[in-house]
Amino acid sequence: MLEVEGLHSFYGDAHVLHGASLTLPEGEVLALLGRNGMGKTTLIRSIMGLRPPAVRQGSIRWKGEELLGLPAHEIARRRVGIVPQGRRLFPSLTVLEHLTTLKPARATGGWTVAKAFEFFPRLAERKANRGHELSGGERQMLAIARALMTDPALLLMDEPTEGLAPVMVQQVERIVLELRRAGLTILLVEQNLYSALALADRVSILETGRVVHEAAASEAGHDHATLTRFLGVH
Amino acid sequence: MNSLNLFQLLNGLTFAALLFVVASGFTLIFGLLRIVNLAHGALYLLGGYIGYAAALATGSFLLAVLAAMASVALAGLALDQGLLRFVRGFELRQVLLTLGVAFILNDLGLLAWGGDTFTVPVPEALRGALRFAGVFYPKYRLFVLALGLVVFLLLWLLLNRTRLGALIRAGVDDAETLEAMGVNIRRIFLVTFMLGAALAGLGGVVGGAFLTLYPGADSEILVFSLAVVIIGGRGSLPGAAIGALMVGLLNSIGQVMFPELAYFVIFGPMALILAFRPLGLFGRAA
């Protein structure tokens, strides 16, 4: 269980998260919705221990353990993985190196390069290419595969379908569903409402740094008043 | 105006080889830690002095090299863990701190070794000259040329064929994301800092045998190294190699053909390159 409580995060003097809270039971997918600038990426970065933002108040517990104050690599060691916004691949590394370099010694089971290539056959074909030589969809797959190699139980995915062609969006959706079926706990930031509703068990809507609405994904799709009010969807 | 001959060309190449050894460590630190380590020249001179002392004490050039590399790597460890760790994330403070360390090391050097000029003694086998293509050329400088090539090859293998090398490259690309993938970036920083310092120490001994050691030698090599890294692009090994070749050869050309303008011959083209490629020849935006 991931439990975020009363989080206050700042970029310099800019107060971005105003007491954001959410809970995510293990094995579920929670979609974090909200317009641009409402604090979705700030929340993801706060959980992962990336600075900035500075977290001045609140708590982030994962499996009962407080993550706040730990450096990012220690959080990753507690099996929290991230697919960052904008992919953030390493331009100097080949596809294969993205997968082999980050494999932690403790991860004896779980994901291997062979399994990753089975899951993402496109990456196997391009294993000698460098990150910047891939198409947008391939980059996103590599960003997901790279995160999987760190052997996460909780995966933070920040806009995985952003900027992708519709056919690639479908592929990424299929991958998220497969990961969910495999038992991963996923916190998904998604601009695309229909993707989010299709992938998630529950949705939380973030508005000016606070979670203002929570609902099961199956209900949220019919709640037009809320969607219009917070997301501008008609 | 004199024309350039083979002798001067070789002088340029051998100086380039030394510059590469020193600047490769500089560029690794610059690329990964995002700081210009202004103590790099002081570490070079420290390595030279320690190598000189070790060579006198043991009579072995090889031991002098090893002693210099090991002790300067330890100085790097002390600098990183003892000082730089307290100002992490503040680039300007880190740079100023390394400048302060450079001043202190130089004064300590002056205290310990005085203002005299020293030459690290080279082994018997590398004394004298070789005759080829109509020139007599010092064997030792040819050795430096070969050493530059060997260091390039070893560093290339380290960076491109080992897991540590892949981690360093990934850290140069994007340290934050690497840390989010579960890598303790501080440890990578430290290893890189010590490696870079050891290369400065190696340069000090090797350079101390033909450029001599004296107070002020540190800032000369620092300025040249800075030009190399700026031309080549921070964090890039091929960039450091090309940059070293350019600076080494331009320095020779400048000294021979335009002795009054020797510095301009190096920094003029550097400014020109920066006008068109602000990140250097092999540089990439962070």
Secondary structure: elements and pairs:
The complex is a heterodimer of chains A (234) and B (286).
Chain A: E1 2-11, E2 14-24, E3 29-33, H1 40-48, E4 54-62, E5 65-66, H2 72-77, E6 80-83, H3 95-100, H4 113-119, H5 121-125, H6 136-149, E7 154-158, H7 166-181, E8 185-189, H8 193-199, E9 202-207, E10 210-216, H9 217-220, H10 224-231
Parallel strand pairs in A: 3-8, 3-9, 6-7, 7-8
Antiparallel strand pairs in A: 1-2, 1-4, 4-5, 9-10
Chain B: H1 6-33, H2 40-58, H3 61-82, H4 91-113, E1 129-132, E2 135-138, H5 139-161, H6 163-180, H7 185-208, H8 217-232, H9 237-257, H10 262-276
Antiparallel strand pairs in B: 1-2
Helix pairs in contact in B: 1-5, 1-6, 1-7, 1-8, 1-9, 2-3, 2-4, 2-7, 2-8, 3-7, 5-6, 6-7, 8-9, 9-10
Family (chain A): Belongs to the ABC transporter superfamily.
Keywords (chain A): Amino-acid transport, ATP-binding, Nucleotide-binding, Transport
InterPro entries (chain A): AAA+_ATPase, ABC_transporter-like_ATP-bd, ABC_transporter-like_CS, BCAA_Transport_ATP-bd_LivF, P-loop_NTPase
Order of helices and strands of chain B: HHHHEEHHHHHH
* Strand content bin of chain B: under 5%
Mean pLDDT figure of chain B: 91
Instruction: State Rg of chain A.
Output: 17 Å
Structural class of chain A: alpha/beta
User: Got a strand count of chain B?
Assistant: 2
What is the highest CATH level, the class of one domain in chain A? Alpha Beta
CATH fold node name of one domain in chain A:
Rossmann fold
Describe this structure in words.
The complex is a heterodimer of chains A (234) and B (286). Chain A has 234 residues and is of the alpha/beta class. Chain A has a domain at 2-85 and 155-231: P-loop containing nucleotide triphosphate hydrolases (Rossmann fold, 3-Layer(aba) Sandwich), CATH 3.40.50. Chain A has ten helices and ten strands. In chain A, the strands form two sheets. Chain A has a six-stranded mixed β-sheet with strand order 6-7-8-3-9-10, with helices on both faces. A four-stranded antiparallel β-sheet of chain A has the order 2-1-4-5, with helices on one face. In chain B, helix 2 crosses helix 7. Chain B has a two-stranded antiparallel sheet with strand order 1-2. Chain B is mainly α and 286 residues long. Chain B has a domain at 22-215. Chain B has ten helices and two strands. The longest helix of chain B has 28 residues, at 6-33. Helices cover 73% and strands 3% of the residues of chain B. Chain B has helices at residues 6-33, 40-58, 61-82, 91-113, 139-161, 163-180, 185-208, 217-232, 237-257, 262-276, and strands spanning 129-132, 135-138. Chain A binds chain B through residues 48-50, 71-73, 76-77, 81-82, 84, 88, 90-93, 97, 100-102, 104, 146-147, 150, and chain B through 163, 166-167, 169-170, 172-174, 176-185, 284. Chain A: Keywords: Amino-acid transport, ATP-binding, Nucleotide-binding, Transport. Chain A: GO terms for molecular function: ATP binding; ATP hydrolysis activity; branched-chain amino acid transmembrane transporter activity. Chain A: Belongs to the ABC transporter superfamily.
